[in-house]
Amino acid sequence: MIDPAVGLCSRCQHCRIVKSERSTFYMCQRSFTEPEYRKYPPLPVLRCAGFDAVPPERGGSGAP
């Protein structure tokens, strides 16, 4: 699901949505292997060198 309030993370294959009782967080899984990426980046993310669009077969539009 593309969410303009979240930016690129909402359509990136490296993003994992973490939900708690009252909040939703967008975790960058690249942060586990590449320290230059923040685990929970401030939103909206408008530019990211590590952005990889979710492939169409996984429900993404395939376009950045």
Give your account of this protein's structure.
This protein has one domain (1-46). It has strands at residues 15-19, 24-28. A two-stranded antiparallel sheet has the order 1-2. It is mostly beta strands and 64 residues long.
SSE inventory with pairings:
Blueprint (H helix, E strand, L loop, with lengths): L14 E5 L4 E5 L36
Antiparallel strand pairs: 1-2
What are the key terms here?
mainly beta, 64 residues
Quick summary:
The protein is 0% helix and 16% strand.
Mean pLDDT: 89
Rg calculated over all Cα atoms: 11 Å
Strand order of the largest sheet: 1-2
In whole angstroms, the N-to-C terminal distance is 13 Å
SS field, number of helical segments: 0
Sequence of secondary-structure elements: EE
Helix amount: under 10%
Number of strands: 2
Given helix and strand content, the structural type is mainly beta
Number of domains: 1
Low-confidence regions: none
Approximately how much beta-strand content do the residues carry?
A: 15-25%
Shape assignment: globular
Biggest sheet features: 2 strands, antiparallel
